[in-house]
Design brief:
By secondary structure, the chain is α/β, with parallel strands linked by helices. Helix content is about 35%, strand content about 25%. It contains 16 helices and 17 strands. It has a six-stranded mixed β-sheet with strand order 6-7-8-3-9-10, sandwiched between helices. It has a four-stranded antiparallel β-sheet with strand order 2-1-4-5, covered by helices on one side. A hairpin with a 5-residue loop joins strand 13 and strand 14. The chain is elongated. The two termini are about 50 Å apart.
Length: about 400
Amino acid sequence: MNQTPILSAKDLDLFYGENQALKSVNMDIPEKQVTALIGPSGCGKSTFLKTLDRMNDLVPGVTIRGRVEYRGRNIYAPDVDVTWIRRQIGMVFQKPNPFPMSIYDNIAYGPRTHGIKSKAKLDEIVEKSLRGAAIWDEVKDRLKKSALGLSGGQQQRICIARALAVEPDVLLMDEAFSALDPLIRVQMQDELLALQSKMKKTIVFITHDLEEAVKLGDRIAIMRDGEIQQTGTSEEILTTPANEYVRCFVENVDRSRIVTAASIMVDKPMVARLGKEGPEVLTRKMRERKTTVLPVVDPDGILVGEVRLEDLLWLRKEHILNIDSVIKKEVHSVLSDTVVEDILPLMTKTNSPIWVVNERREFEGMVPLSSLIIEVTGKDKKEINEIIQNAIKL
């Protein structure tokens, strides 16, 4: 990880009496990213989440060993003010728990507690928070009515707005969308992504839904039996699962929507260097490598097109010493973060590899046809080569 984490669990154990619920958990939570915690029921997700703002202090018989550090400070140290911790690290629970007061007062409660008395400022906070929770339009005309009169889904969004109102450094969300109906749930997922793009909050989000974890999480942590099995981006977990459990856990995910060109490309392949290599040299190189097409790059490494073996052979026959006249400049290229789903349509438009470039069109690598087919079919390279050879014979 390139940055100092905002939260870190270090050798964290938690016991409910004699029962160990967390087992030597070590995990860094990066700042200004969404970390999705996922795993089966009873695996310790909610227990772990509650250790991050000391909510487990309220549970009788709990014993905790190890450390949880917030900005480098152990939050379980004797001199730490728990109220201060919960001001910095907010929580939205799975079940809605609005206060028995008006919608407005629910949202204004936290800011008032922290000393904000200005009516204009409170009005601004209430509206901003309710918009952030995608419920402003539904409640703007009844802010003085009790929050307890709202539907369950509306109450949950009030709780999200209430958490946002105090602008916590970290927001913990324990399956906060699970009780919402499907349409509202998708809307809230989109609102959370929109909120994150603007505010860059640190969010730790629990879900049972792998698709939701992939959609929302910059990073995903998979838990089982109180232990972290793997943490990483969705692409890292899909392409390099840490163990058989993780592999089985993610096997039904649509890889084409997650895996990018960067994961399946051949980096630093052989290229034709414009102005430096002529037909003779390139023909020999291509025959040695048993390839029929090469990307062409200029002296600055910019992709300018591709050249084919048959055209180089013609140049050599005609004693033409440069390749300019046979460079095909209209080629298919993608950025390294392009997902396979968006690369697949290009397969029908070319029999060349898909070239990978950066935003300056500097050449980075290529995605062979076989790599795309492997991602789509799950077959290995040997099987793919047999399919391609049989197709050629037909």
